Amino acid sequence: xxxxxxxxxxxxxxxxxxxxxxxxxxxxxxxxxxxxxxxxxxxxxxxxxxxxxxxxxxxxxxxxxxxxxxxxxxxxxxxxxxxxxxxxxxxxxxxxxxxxxxxxxxxx
Length: 108
Known about the structure:
This protein is α+β, with helices and mostly antiparallel strands. It has four helices and five strands, in the order αββββααβα. The chain has a five-stranded mixed sheet. β1 (about 30-35) and β2 form a beta hairpin. It is globular. The two termini are about 20 Å apart.
């Protein structure tokens, strides 16, 4: 099981990947990531191709909600776990519009 600090680092890696990537989607959405095994979470905002204002806490009203185990979050952001297979197998749950889901797929 990954620690809260390792999960924070994983989200920071994701933020760097999003802001450094070519063609990052220009979504303006609230984002929440719930870590099921830690009963904890983080939330932030996707704005203009950047993930900003990452803070601890689960935002149930976020437009994009991710749920994963701490280990799966870390593996996803390191490129060790494929987004599509994690989603298809239920290891990653996403509550978002179809449009947002398609855009997110390119980020993870």
